[in-house]
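Suppose a colleague, Dr. K., hands you the sequence of a protein chain of 80 amino acids and asks what its three-dimensional shape might be. Before reaching for any lab equipment, you can write down a predicted structure in token form. Begin with the sequence itself:
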Amino acid sequence: MVRGQEWTGFEAAALQEAMRKSIRQFAALLGVETTTINNWRSGLSTVKPRTQTQEILDTTYAHRATPQDRARFEQIVTEG
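The predicted structure, expressed as tokens, is then:
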């Protein structure tokens, strides 16, 4: 894992916000359905994306998010 822990719906939503992507744009970036993103946003901390999606989120965070995106992500997660 890039981040050292499993992603939750809250963190996935935080990454979407940090990258300033709409639900549709973020779903396309990850290669998932928009309903998946909506489910993450609905369940937040209680939802854990599937293993394959965890890897996609790791890759997106590490290779597609800019340093500014990662800084915004960390701020969002820290503030809860």
